[in-house]
């Protein structure tokens, strides 16, 4: 993957026992966009804590491009969900890393139960948010100040965006393309990946 000076980076965190489509759905959107429209100035990448392959919830093995130590400074951070998020809720090092990223990354996003991890890190305090429909009560129990938006495909609260479960990450990613490059570009990407829900 080659980048030029001034390139802005969208990074998707990968981890063991994540839900495959939470990461791969948005990856398809961002990769299609950045490869077909490089002049927009964005690139998409993936990373894990140590840069080693991760084994997803349904057995897919994915090799990240980077580790957290080598990933370039991000403009967008996407945190997937899946059963692997349960251990992250009490992982002090991971939560501290998220808070550190929040201080530097302009847009932090989550798919599915990734929002529960954002909540555990204190990043959703007093904000509207959503998650997998089966995790909404858990989200409320982690932080009662969150205003839940059940039924929303995604919730854009400016510098933080959360999405509902699994396939909703595709909708959120297209929304992000629209925010960053305009509605016409988002429509071009939607048509390019033949996504017509």
UniProtKB/TrEMBL annotation:
SUPFAM superfamilies found in the cross-reference section: Class I glutamine amidotransferase-like
Source domain of life is Bacteria
The residue ranges of the DJ-1/PfpI domain are 10-177
Provide the transmembrane region boundaries: none
Q: Name one Pfam family in it.
A: DJ-1_PfpI
**Which InterPro entries does UniProt cross-reference here?**
Class_I_gatase-like (IPR029062), DJ-1/PfpI (IPR002818), INH-QAR (IPR052158)
What PANTHER family does this protein map onto? Answer: ARAC-FAMILY TRANSCRIPTIONAL REGULATOR, HTH-TYPE TRANSCRIPTIONAL REGULATOR RV1931C
Protein name according to UniProt: DJ-1/PfpI family protein
Please report the organism this UniProt entry assigns to the protein: Geodermatophilus siccatus
What lineage is on file? Bacteria, Bacillati, Actinomycetota, Actinomycetes, Geodermatophilales
């Amino acid at each position: 993957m080659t980048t030029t000076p001034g390139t802005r980076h969208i990074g998707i965190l990968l981890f063991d026992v994540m839900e495959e489509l939470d990461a791969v759905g948005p990856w398809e959107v961002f990769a299609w966009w950045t490869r077909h429209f490089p002049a927009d100035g964005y690139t998409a990448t993936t990373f894990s804590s140590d840069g080693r392959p991760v084994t997803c919830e349904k057995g897919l093995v994915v090799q990240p491009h980077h580790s957290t130590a080598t990933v370039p400074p991000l403009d967008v951070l996407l945190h997937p969900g899946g059963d692997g998020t349960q251990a992250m809720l009490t992982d002090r090092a991971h939560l501290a890393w998220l808070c550190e990223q929040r201080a530097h990354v302009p847009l932090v996003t989550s798919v599915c139960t990734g929002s529960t991890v954002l909540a555990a890190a204190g990043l959703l305090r007093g904000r509207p948010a959503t998650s997998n429909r089966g995790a909404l009560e858990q989200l409320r129990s982690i932080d009662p100040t969150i205003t839940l938006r059940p039924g929303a495909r995604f919730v854009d609260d400016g510098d933080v965006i959360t999405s509902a479960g699994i396939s909703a990450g595709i909708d959120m990613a297209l929304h992000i393309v629209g925010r960053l490059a305009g509605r016409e570009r988002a429509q071009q990407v939607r048509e390019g990946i033949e996504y017509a829900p």
